Amino acid sequence: MTNSNENTLFAQKEQAPKHLTFSAGVKRLRSHWLSLKGRSTRKEYWLIGLCIYILVGLALNIASIILFFILPGIRSNLITTPVTLALIYMNFALSVRRLHDIGYSGWYALLSYIPLINLFFLYLTVKPSVPDNKYGPQWEETKY
Q1: 22 versus 118: which is more confidently predicted?
Q2: Alpha helical stretches, state H, 15-76
């Protein structure tokens, strides 16, 4: 009888959910950060996406201030505009993959740029992951 209990405990340990760590999320994001294909979990979307957006935005503001005082003749927006556009694309690609994770078309990501309607997009980003769908298999940490 104890042998069956041990097997049950072993099976439960195997099915324990795998949590996405920050470093694993960054590694996953680096592997497909420009891709509009695939899926991104809720945790990847919120933790990684917002952290990168905030950190890079802060760095851009600091760079603008430094450039303004060191090189007053050069407009700082010549440097910050391309980086900002790259950030917008990265955020859009992450949003498309998040929508794929919940089974929606990536075109819904365009809703995030429309005032008031973007609240519906916000609602979509907090929905839980769905099982395997046409956009790819479900990530391991969201299966439980």
Answers
A1: 118
A2: 22-31, 42-43, 50-70
Region of 116 (left: φ > 0; alpha: ψ -120 to 50; beta: rest) is left
pLDDT tens digits for range 57-85: 788 888 778 777 777 766 667 777 787 78
Q: Which pairs from 3-11 meet CB under 8 Å and 24+ separation?
A: none
Contacts of 123 (CB under 8 A, 6+ apart): none
In this structure, the number of other CB atoms found within 10 A of the CB of residue 98 comes to 27
| 136: three-class secondary structure by DSSP | strand
**Exposed/middle/buried for residue 125 (C-beta within 10 Å: 0-12, 13-18, 19+):** buried
Q: How confident is the model at residue 139 (pLDDT cuts 50, 70, 90)?
A: low
Question: Cβ(67)–Cβ(123) under 8 Å?
Answer: no
Helix, strand, or coil (residue 133): strand
